[in-house]
Amino acid sequence: MEYRVVLIQKQINNTEEIIDLFKNTHIDLVIVADADKLTDVLSQNNDMIDLIIVAIQKEIGNDFDIITKLRTKYKYKDIPFVVLAPKSDVMKGVAMGACDYMILPYNPLDLCSQVKTLLHNLKQDRSVYRSQTEVAMSFHEYFNSEINRADRGNYELSIILFSIGASTASDGIVSDPLLKATNHLSSIIKNKLRSTDTIIRYNPYNIIGFLPFTSKFNAEIVAIKVQDIYEQFTHQNPLENQLNLSYAIVSFPEDGENIEDLLYNAEFNLHLYRKANS
After folding, report:
1. What angle do CA 154, 157, 160 make, to 5 degrees?
2. β-pairing verdict for 51-55 and 100-103
3. In this predicted model, what pLDDT tens digit does every residue of 15-40 receive, in sequence order?
4. Cα–Cα distances in angstroms (integers) from residue 193 to residues 50, 196, 209, 225, in the given order
């Protein structure tokens, strides 16, 4: 098997089916019922465990103490973990260091697909669900994955389109300063996002940020903070000072239920923003 994964969850009715499902994607899945059995598996296979999936089931005793025990053991602290939890508990799991999440109840096929993608990216030392400027999937594949997750979890997904352009019609600006400014913008956005948020380079001078569990109002607060920091940077750099940062915010499902509608509305709102601030 290419990977070994441990799932800690009580009361699974279709254990063998789930194990076979993962096996078909070259993942050796071990299922345990509680923290003690998890410790036993880890102590025997610590160097061979690629990922731990923790199902938060407070009503039957599996809660965040499991994650605390993992994080406080030095030899286990670097094993990445995924949280399966009710919507109300997901963000707590992420705050404790989860590199991904899924809302309970989950579809085993969706879980397998999500874990496979995550393992592929972890193998290359970059998680697709951490803030970054590129992902291993195509742009449309990743955009669709965010929409599907929001739809399954029944939560709001805000999308911020950041764009950098010349502040005047004069063409003294060449591509290098634009790219430099866009790269710096990427760093600013990374520092302002949570671990559940992701940024993707939409094209050389545009960046899209995906903010799950975030209203448009809160996304606006993030965008304004990013803009303020970016302006401080450009004031200290004369050439970049000729470049303006614009942004537009759309929300799934309010502003669209597919990529085409969401991008169209984001670009239209960006046009209105530029027009109002020209």
Report:
1. 175
2. unpaired
3. 999 999 999 999 999 999 888 888 88
4. 26, 8, 9, 11
Domains and CATH numbers, the chain: 3-123 (3.40.50.2300), 139-276 (3.30.70.270)
Tens digits of residue pLDDT in 205-234: 788 999 998 899 989 988 888 888 888 777
Spell out the residues 6+ positions from residue 108 whose beta carbon is closer than 8 angstroms to its own: 14, 17, 18, 21
- Amino acid identity at 6: V
SS3 content of the chain, % helix, strand, coil (to 5): 50, 20, 30
* Token pair in block for residue 179: 């790219």
H-state helical runs in 24-64 = 35-45
Structure tokens at 117: 């993608």
The model scores a pTM over 0.70: no
- pLDDT tens sequence across 174-198: 455 666 667 777 777 777 777 678 8
